[in-house]
Every structure is written in C-alpha cells, then in structure tokens.
Amino acid sequence: MSKRYDIAIIGSGPAGLSAAINAKIRNKDAIIFGNKELSYKLSKAPKINNYLGFFDITGSQLKKAFKNHIEAMDINITEEKVNAVYAMGDYFAIMVNEKSYESKAIVIATGMEHSKPIRGEEEFLGRGVGYCATCDAPLYKGKVVTVIGYNKEAEEDANFVSELASKVYYIPMYRDKYGLNKSIEVVEDKPMEILGENLVNKLVLKNKEINTDGVFVLKDSVSPEQLVPGLEMEEGHIKVDKNMKTSIEGCFAAGDCTGKPYQYIKSAGEGQVAALNAVSYLNSKK
Amino acid sequence: MIKEINDKDFKQEVVNSESTTVVDFWASWCGPCKMLSPVIDELAQELNGEAKFVKVNVDENPVASSEYRVASIPTVMVFKGGKVVETLVGFRPKQAIKTAIERHI
C-alpha cells in the first residue's frame, strides 16, 4: 500500500504554488507535481505591472520570488508528469507513467492547453478516436490505424500499434527525424477533420484523405476532462463554484484551467481558495 | 466477485436477462480497466438485487465486443430489455456510473 497524501496539487504555476503554501500553512501533507521552471508562461512574460506588491518586474523575476517563497517554506516540486487521475470514491489515484500516488483531495492547476482539438475528435472519442494507443491498440488488430503525434513519445506508441494493426499511418505535428518501424507510412500533412458514420472511417488532411478505422491523437498535455475522467467542463474550462469545487467530490481546481481572465494574481487567489476548501473537506471527513 | 461471461453465454446472461444488466468490457493490459474494477465491485454490492453486473474480457471475446462496437476500453454498457440504454467510455467516477445505472432501475 503506497502512502496516501492529504492533498495532491497538479501544476506548478501561480495557482498550484499558492495552493501549496496554503496547504503547508494549514499543516497538511501535500505533494505538488510540476517542473523546475514552475511555469513556461511566467518565464516568457516580458513585463508585469498588475501583480499587487510587485511593480515593473519581468516574468523571470517574479518566478524567482515565487521560488524563494516555496524554498523558504520547504516545499519541493515533484518533477513528474501526471497522465491520469482516477476518482476512486474516497481517494484519488494519480497515475505517473509506471508509478502511482494516492491522495485524499486534489487541486487541479494545470493551466490552459491552447491547441484545439481536430474537428470530429470529440464527436468520435471512444468510437475510433483514442488518446492512449497502448491501451486500445489490441482492439485494432488487423485494422488500419492513424497516429497523430505531437511529440517523440508518440513514435514508440506508433511502433507498438504497428505490430498489431494491418497498416499504420503516422502524422507528425513536429519536425524531427522519426524513429519509426519501416512498415509505418509517414504522412507530412495537416489533419483537418475526422469523419465517419457510427465509427471513424476517414481522416481528412489538407492535401489528401486517408481511410482509417482508428485515429490516436497523442499530445504533450491532455485536457482536464481526459486527465480526470468524469470531470464536468463548461466552455473548455473546468466547471467550478465559488469555493473552487468541481463536479467531483474532493476535487478542486484553480487558475487558467477554470476560466478567464488568464492572470497571475487571479490564479494565486483561486489556488488559495481551492487549498483552504480542500483543507475543510479533509477536516469534514475525519 | 462479479461474474465473468463470454461470447457463448452473452445472449443468455445479458440480452435475455430480465433485470437491468451492467457489462464491464475490460482486458488485462488496460490500466484504466484495473482502476475501474474495484469501483464496479463496490457498485455491484451497493446495487445488489437492483441490477446485475457482469464482466467481458475483450481479448477472449471478440464476438460480443465487436457486435457492440467496443472501440475503447474500459467501456461500461447498461442493458435493459435486451437493448443498450447507456454506454460509458473510459474511466468514470463511482457516482457518475451509479447515476447512469440508477436511471434504468
């Protein structure tokens, strides 16, 4: 049995960090997933004038201030990518590649994914469109599969699928050398739309069409509803109430992922509200 | 434990069943299926007598899984009167599955 944390925070931007310091102040055992850079958006900001108390500073200066703050409070960031979070009833199972973690409450602070889904992607999800090639590949034994890959890892998945499927097309969304099996056909073209009747039967690209039984879309980061299956969304954002509660009991969300405006101090404020309500949720369960 | 059924007895156990029947399509290599399994077990206990629960391993039972067009697993289907009345693709929290089943009992 693995250790069960009080709160797991997913994301290391202003929302996640603000949630982390407040959880720490309330003496809860929290784990925060993210990266050393904290937030790529923050590092890139040239000038910030709307963060109260900090005037005329760059994104990297504000990042440094955040970093000093969490270090002073002895908060460490776990540099691992969360693939999925399952609401098991009275706890959450957090899947990280080969490992998994457990927590009693969760705060989603993953920011906003800007790449839009392909037309038809959502409509045919589970009817030919999938996000986990290794999960569903055996269902496409002897069939034609197209993999739309946004990163190098997608190549390994395509190779795995090619051992089962009768034909695999690989559509790279980046430029690099591809480490693919010989049998895979690389199509350098832009996906436009996924078509079908009951199930997927075609992928329309800018310059051609491919007949295919399945389409796997493999991205760097997944949308919140794929990250936490069953999470209710509203216009592309996680649906929350004023306590930052989501549709799943014990699951809270904060920052850009909950909606506009996309601003640092709004994210930090929401992170605080989410953490404090996660603390009350934990206390009410005792 | 939830009963494992196969291509041969699918009709008898699910289609011809008089009660609302919940079918969990799964396979041993599927991570989300493993997570869903204890959730389904709990629901089977909570809804004992109100709905019937069965499991189908898609690896061993291609006929049933292709007849009902299972293209992604886990897939949970609710059958009533021999017809599919609800299809839930992918992992779902316990309450969401319970609500979907309760609509049909």
TrEMBL record, chain A:
Keywords: Flavoprotein, Oxidoreductase. One of its GO terms (molecular function) is thioredoxin-disulfide reductase (NADPH) activity. Residues 5-271 form the FAD/NAD(P)-binding domain. Its EC number is 1.8.1.9. It holds the Pfam family Pyr_redox_2. This is Thioredoxin reductase. It is an enzyme of class 1 (oxidoreductase).
UniProtKB/TrEMBL annotation, chain B:
It comes from the Bacteria. SUPFAM superfamilies: Thioredoxin-like. It holds the Pfam family Thioredoxin. GO terms for molecular function: protein-disulfide reductase activity. Disulfide bonds join 30-33. The active site is at residues 30, 33. GO terms for cellular component: cytosol. The record marks 31-32 as: Contributes to redox potential value. GO terms for biological process: cell redox homeostasis. Keywords: Disulfide bond, Electron transport, Redox-active center, Transport. Gene3D superfamilies: Glutaredoxin. The record marks 24 as: Deprotonates C-terminal active site Cys. Residues 1-105 form the Thioredoxin domain. Belongs to the thioredoxin family. This is Thioredoxin. It comes from Clostridium liquoris.
